[in-house]
Amino acid sequence: QQQVKQSPQSLIVQKGGIPIINCAYENTAFDYFPWYQQFPGKGPALLIAIRPDVSEKKEGRFTISFNKSAKQFSLHIMDSQPGDSATYFCAATEYGNKLVFGAGTILRVKS
Amino acid sequence: KAGVTQTPRYLIKTRGQQVTLSCSPISGHRSVSWYQQTPGQGLQFLFEYFSETQRNKGNFPGRFSGRQFSNSRSEMNVSTLELGDSALYLCASSPIGGDTEAFFGQGTRLTVV
Question: To bridge A44 with a disulfide, which of A4, A10, A38, A53 should be the other Cys (CB 3.0-4.6 Å)?
């Protein structure tokens, strides 16, 4: 049972573009929503995270937008670079460190 | 500060065998979680240990087990290996447990033949 739905599956943007990755959840008990970046052969690395009492959070070129009523959240990458090419995962957790991950989005930034 | 260390990095086992994977968390971290990553199922939670106690468990059969030692190092064991157990097994450590940042290791790539 997929509790966090992520889209799109893959995404190609030009350098400088703003890729947007969307996630939706159903479990209203989720209260922590991190995004992870994974390069081939590496483990996922935490990019940015948000809690439901905040509608937007920015860290460098990465922004999370959160819509609690719609149970949706998204990742925007400003001024994307070829080095941002990776797989991105959204996740959610309701307690402890039991992360529920989305299926992942493969991002390619063309130079 | 050293990151999360997982050993071995690669492993090839035969169906029916058992395997033990090891994870050393970041110094001072007390929570260790394990995940299985496959192309078909994505990243799936196996279990979490905090202060040597299993605190959360995912939907995996009893062949998958784990433990945590007093120094927070953790091991996971898979018995009676099946072809479908081939995956990247990832360990993540967190400072105190609860919804805090989870830092992942590079994983152990297990291939069952």
Answer: A38
